[in-house]
Amino acid sequence: ILQRCTVVCSWASSLPYRCIITCNADSVCSVINTCGSVLMRDVFQQTVRAYSELAASTAPLKDSAKGQMPFLAIHNCLDQISANVVKLHEMVDAECQRLFKPPAMQQQLPKSDKSNTKSAHPPAQQQGPWVKVKLCLDEFLNVDKTVSAQLREHLEQLCVTQVFPRLRACVDLFTGVNYEIGEDDYLRNAELYDAFVVQFAMGVESLLKQYEGSLTPRNYENVVTITVNYLLEKIEQLFFQKRFTMLGGIQFEKDMRGLNTHFGGLTHKNFVREKFLRLANLALFLQLEKVSDAVDFWRENASASSWHLSQHDVRRAMTLRVDFSKELVTHLRL
């Protein structure tokens, strides 16, 4: 299947030399549409069919490392189809722009000239060859959107069935962390170099590294992204089930900074930093000396672009402090 995709895109890559140089928009559109149809019918649909057949025939082996390899190969095939479509689109788009010369923006008509308003935006087929070709190119790019959506679904299924269940030990590590601590416990954690962060990060990284050599770089990046997002959601859920002292709040912020450093190195996606910013913001309200301090702190920071909390989030977090009155927190005027 992957070979067929490569052949189709290689054939289509000859467009600038065979078809585009004729400057015939109809011919170019015909080849673009044919290429899209072939990729969808003979490559993408066959890939999806192969995945379904494989899932039905190898169900007992699917959970083994050997049983996963054919599925990972199909994921890589979909990624390659997507990459080829995008590359081909960019190449043909650039060449068509050079030869068909997109029309400059039309002069704005005077507001009083209503008689010409209708002709200012004629149908696509009347606007010249570039518009016709551009419409075909945009339609061709929909192939990538379809393939990418299917690939995302498959990768999420891979994570749900194969990755997430094996992360239970890491999640249990955070479940077992106690943040109702005093000075002695806080100093002991520092002497142990925050062992929780190290164990948690190593457990996640060792699991994900098993997929690094079997997936394309982009697929691996997406698996990492899906996994990290899942873990951060779990951490936030468990956060609201815990109780904190002020030193516990400081320790929680240190732990999240440590995890941010580790996870930030696994993926380049900005959402990881944003997710940790939210957890860091929550930790700040756990470090206040008294409930009333939250008012000034909220007013100083709520308008910042790095702020990811609502008033409800603040009150909910502050009720986790063992020494804060729930009644005072509830009646805070932020």
Structure description:
Helix 8 packs parallel to helix 10. The model is unreliable at 105-110 and 117-122 (pLDDT under 50). The protein is elongated, with a radius of gyration of 28 Å. It has helices at 2-12, 15-18, 25-57, 65-100, 129-163, 168-175, 183-191, 195-212, 217-239, 246-264, 271-285, 293-301, 311-318, 326-330. 70% of the residues lie in helices and 0% in strands. The longest helix has 36 residues, at 65-100. The protein is built from 14 helices and no strands.
Produce a short descriptive summary.
The chain has 334 residues and is mainly α.
Q: How would the global form be characterised?
A: elongated
Order of helices and strands: HHHHHHHHHHHHHH
Percent helix: 55-70%
For the termini, the CA-CA separation is 59 Å
- Helix/strand/pairing category: mainly alpha
Short descriptors:
single chain, 334 residues, mainly alpha, 14 helices
Lay out the secondary structure.
Elements: H1 2-12, H2 15-18, H3 25-57, H4 65-100, H5 129-163, H6 168-175, H7 183-191, H8 195-212, H9 217-239, H10 246-264, H11 271-285, H12 293-301, H13 311-318, H14 326-330
Helix pairs in contact: 1-3, 1-4, 3-4, 3-5, 4-5, 5-9, 6-8, 8-10, 9-11, 10-11
